[in-house]
Design a protein that fits this description.
- The chain is α/β, with parallel strands linked by helices and 291 residues long.
- A six-stranded parallel beta sheet has the order 2-1-3-4-6-10, with helices on both faces. Strands 5-12 form a two-stranded parallel sheet. It has a two-stranded parallel ribbon with strand order 7-9.
- α2 packs parallel to α3.
- It is globular, with a radius of gyration of 20 Å.
């Protein structure tokens, strides 16, 4: 049996990982601990095989004055917990980084990440994650394995991220630009199964889990509109406005730019695609998660 400690209590990812692993109690025991005010130091790390650190700041407006907090939580705390885990005999440390270490979408040019793409963050959120990765790699030994996850956008039931907002928008707008794109996404159950396999196989390294199908913003709007019996006119007549807005409006770039991993980066010799892309959209339940 693998004993797992999740640092970062009550997070969307952490709770779903715990739920998933506990489906097989003969294989896993899971505890969680908060990372606020050094509460995590009260846990007995010596009894755990694996520490999965999901604590971090992500969905906060990255104002310049927030930079010190990002580095304190995303970098310094992640490394401190890893050092503590190593000192107490933990064998594997899993860190939730992000695709954002390559860069945040700030234009409509889009990006394709390949195995040869070098991380190049263009904001302090991405930089804080990348600096954490570099610090963690220095701690790795034969008896202390480091797993770094760089997932794209994670979504699932009761998540209040960008996908539910897009689903809500699809029920409100009468027209939408026919600006097609390709985006990597990852359903939280697919992430959870991926983490499960990392633990069972005692793996280490940097990983790029994603769904086996790319998303397209236009097709997502079409899907959620149809699901809610709403008519949306998808037209290329609005595309010039998208192009123009891309020069001035960050949300336009975030919504319409392509951003994806090549699929061969996300294949590891085991299957973690437990939820199909179509079924995962059914799971979103957008109306229940939007105010």
């Amino acid at each position: 049996m693998k004993k797992v400690l999740i640092t970062g209590a009550n997070s969307f990812v952490g709770m779903n990982i715990e739920r998933w692993l506990m489906k097989t109690p003969e294989e896993f025991s899971v505890d969680t601990v908060d990372t606020m005010n050094d509460v995590w130091k009260q846990a007995d790390f010596s009894q755990y095989d694996v520490v999965f650190n999901v604590a971090g700041i992500a969905h906060v407006d990255p104002k310049p004055e927030m930079a010190p907090l990002y580095y304190k939580v995303n970098r310094d705390l992640a490394i401190e917990i890893a050092k503590w885990a190593k000192e107490h005999g933990v064998k594997q440390y899993i860190y939730m980084s992000s695709k954002i270490v390559y860069h945040a979408s700030k234009s409509l040019k889009g990006d394709v990440v390949t195995k040869n793409t070098t991380p190049n963050p263009n904001d302090f959120y991405g930089d804080s994650k990348l600096q954490a990765e570099n610090g963690l790699k220095e701690l790795e030994t034969d008896t202390f394995k480091i797993c770094i996850l760089r997932p794209p956008m994670i979504y699932g039931p009761n998540n209040k991220g960008n996908l539910p907002r897009l689903a809500w928008l699809a029920t409100k707008v009468p027209v939408f630009p026919a600006w097609h794109n390709k985006r990597s996404m990852l359903h939280v159950d697919n992430l959870a199964e991926f983490v499960k396999q990392l633990i069972l196989r005692d793996m280490s390294g940097t990983f790029f889990p994603q769904n086996s199908e790319y998303a397209d913003t236009v097709e997502l709007v079409r899907y959620f509109a149809d699901k809610n019996n709403k008519k949306v006119w998808i037209t290329g007549l609005l595309n010039p406005f998208v192009w123009l807005g891309g020069f001035f409006l960050k949300p336009v770039c975030k919504m319409f730019s392509s951003s994806y991993y090549e699929q061969d980066m996300s294949q590891y010799g085991f299957n973690y695609q437990v939820v199909s892309y179509k079924d995962s959209l059914e799971d979103v339940e957008a109306r229940k998660t939007m105010r």
